[in-house]
Write a structure and sequence with these properties.
The complex is a heterodimer of chains A (about 325) and B (about 290). Chain A is mostly helical and about 325 residues long. Chain A has helices at about 1-25, 35-40, 45-55, 65-75, 90-125, 135-145, 150-160, 180-220, 220-230, 235-270, 275-285, 290-320. Chain B has helices at about 5-25, 60-95, 95-110, 115-125, 130-140, 145-155, 160-165, 170-180, 185-210, 220-230, 240-265, 285-290. The chains are: A mainly alpha (about 325), B mainly alpha (about 290). Chain B: Keywords: Cell membrane, Membrane, Transmembrane, Transmembrane helix, Transport.
């Protein structure tokens, strides 16, 4: 249990670091972005909204840095991420709330499938070292060097178009109202298929490579030799002895690599105009919508940390050594 | 290294890109930003990679853009490598709370999603140039290598030869620089190559979402214009294929170099043990090796 507590403490530290970065970064913005927005909206903003934005950007010149910091923390705890510039007058929290389910659905499902597929394939390739399976490696290296978003562009160019089964953009048919009937779910799946496959193809190769390398390292260990010598079936040695142990570093690698993968997958959303956080990030960069940018950064960080916690629990279940006290 | 075809291929390809980075702007047949009347032309003898919606030559854009890509990759790689050596080796060598603190610091930077972090920092900066982008990437991308270096230093710290050096009364700095560092060279080199790859992809990604050196070209800027001018729906495949292939080729070259280093460090990963002529087979080799020695 002390293992999980230690991890929890670490995640709290990370949340604090992310919040602190978020507090200091906007201070580098030249000029007064809030004033620019007020001018643009011609006085339609409530004084409360203006006040919340000033706290967010640290433009409250009368207050000391410390008290600015604490009023910022207080504002975050109330769930107030400020007012979005592009989606005025929606608060950032609402805008992100609209995008988050799409991102979690698309990125979450494909990342998990990619991990399992890649690990299984990597185990197989690593076990059959020196056969045709090795020729997969140059291919996967090449694929894993391609940025996700470019693969998405190619997929759109080749697979979509008039009369194609795959739609080129959006998350569901225009005109449908999001609800839980079959027509909508079917449309969602149809729209999610191509972006999902893109993420899958580019993320799977990384897992194949790392699992293959672990398999190769593990399969010349003594206990594998012993298992062979005992005359166990090949399949059993591969799965229960080699893969079982090669899996551990891959699971902890999964937790660490999540931050990188999420960055890449957000770009796929942009290419496919998928209405998740990635597309919002893109719009926010274009419109210099700082509150939305910061909010998205914070929410993505929190989601990645949550996923990390789940990976920790999985690791705890897989590796008995972490459960030993002391 | 010479006997390793993977690493050799990677190095040759890498050298090609570095050469392009140096001479690219002189080789480019056109000014990459110059407009002409050949609007949205497919590849032809005069425009090898075709033209954009403004009649700009895409071949020139890709050639000129190579310099920015290589520059950002190299600078970010250097900054991140220096930081990771400082943090990683100290975290591994120092015992107690200082080591733990440094290790926690690198884990925090590892878990925070890098790309959104880079995006919020670069878009808040007063000015974005190749140098600032490279520095932001370098300052945020060191954590992975620091972690690897820490683990390696931890295992080296208790080796006999290090203990012997300590017993001889050598200073801590001398032990770190002359006893431990030489054994970390391969890890540092592989970390550098990996960070360069990450930096290149990050720079291109940033440019693709609209954060780039003002007025400059890189492969991501080409893709940004292709995306925003709907190159796909107009069937202008030549607009985004060359830049994407260039990224993939450079990335593959860097990965190949890294495989070479990995195999040099961990002989088990070598595909064929051609040097000895014995095909390694699980279950037999360990016994054979022991008998012959």
């Amino acid at each position: 249990m002390s293992y999980l507590l230690k991890r929890l403490g670490f995640y709290l530290l990370t949340v604090w670091a992310a919040v602190t970065i978020n507090f200091f970064v906007p201070r580098m913005i030249p000029g007064d972005p809030v004033q620019a927005l007020i001018t643009k909206q011609r006085g339609q903003m409530t004084s409360e909204a203006v006040r919340s934005l000033y706290v967010l950007f640290g433009l409250d010149k009368d207050e000391s840095l410390a008290s600015q910091y604490f009023s910022y923390l207080g504002q975050l705890l109330r769930g107030d991420l400020g007012m979005s510039f592009t989606f005025f007058p929606s608060p950032v929290a609402d805008v992100i709330g609209d995008g988050l389910p799409w991102t979690v659905g698309l990125v979450g499902i494909t990342t998990v499938i990619g991990f399992f597929l890649g690990t299984a394939a990597g185990a197989l390739v690593g076990w059959r070292r020196g056969t045709w399976a090795d020729s997969l490696i140059p291919v996967t290296t090449f694929v894993s060097s391609i940025p996700y978003f470019w693969l998405g562009l190619v997929a759109i160019a080749l697979l979509t178009g008039p009369g194609s089964f795959f739609p080129a953009s959006g998350a569901y048919e225009i005109g449908l109202v999001p609800n839980w009937d079959w027509q909508f779910i079917g449309s969602t799946v149809q729209h999610g298929l191509l972006p999902g496959l893109t993420i899958l193809v580019s993320s799977v190769s990384g897992w194949i490579l790392s699992m293959r390398n672990m398999m190769v390292t593990v399969s010349s260990d003594d206990y594998v030799t012993v298992a062979h010598a005992k005359g166990l079936p090949e399949r059993r040695v591969m799965l229960a002895y080699a893969a079982r142990n090669a899996l551990l570093p891959n699971v902890s690698g999964f937790a660490l690599a999540l931050g990188f993968i999420v960055g890449g997958t957000l770009l796929v959303e942009i290419v496919f105009s998928y209405p998740g956080l990635g597309l919002q990030l893109f719009q926010a960069v274009g419109a210099k919508d700082y509150p939305l940018l910061q909010g998205i950064f914070l929410i993505i960080t929190l989601s990645v940390l949550l996923a990390n916690l789940l990976a920790d629990v999985a690791y705890l279940a897989l590796d008995p050594r972490t459960r030993r006290e002391g | 290294m010479r006997s390793n075809p993977k690493a050799l291929t990677g190095l040759v390809a890498l050298g090609f890109f570095v050469l392009l980075a140096v001479v690219g702007p002189w080789l480019a047949p056109f000014d990459p930003s110059m407009r002409s009347n050949d609007l949205l032309q497919p590849p032809s003898p005069s425009h090898w990679f075709g033209t954009t919606h403004l009649g700009q030559d895409i071949f020139s854009q890709v050639l000129v853009g190579t310099r920015s890509v290589v520059f950002v990759g190299a600078v970010a790689g250097l900054v991140a490598t220096v930081l990771s050596v400082l943090v990683g080796v100290s975290a591994g060598y120092l015992s107690g709370s200082a080591g733990e603190g440094l290790s926690a610091l690198s884990n925090v930077f590892l878990v925070i999603p890098a790309l959104p972090l880079i995006v919020i920092i670069t878009s808040s900066l007063p000015e974005t140039s190749n140098l600032t982008i490279a520095l932001v990437i370098g300052l945020t991308a060191w954590a992975w290598n620091a972690r690897v270096l820490r683990a390696q230093t931890l295992s080296l710290r208790r080796r006999d030869y290090v203990e012997a050096a300590r017993a001889n009364g050598e200073s801590t700095w001398r032990i770190i620089l002359f006893e431990i560092m030489p054994n970390l060279t391969a890890v540092i080199a592989s970390g550098f190559v990996g960070t360069v790859l990450f930096a290149v992809i990050s720079e291109i990604t940033l440019a693709f979402i609209g954060v780039s050196d003002a007025g400059g070209w890189n492969w991501g800027t080409v893709l940004y214009w292709a995306q925003s001018q709907q190159a796909l729906t107009q069937g202008a495949w030549w607009w985004f294929v060359p830049a994407g292939l260039a990224i993939a080729l450079l990335g593959t070259a860097l990965s190949l170099v890294n495989f070479g280093i990995d195999e040099y460090v961990n002989p088990r990963l070598r595909t064929r043990s051609s040097t000895r002529g014995v095909r390694m087979r699980v279950g037999f080799t360990p016994v054979l090796a022991k008998e012959s020695s």
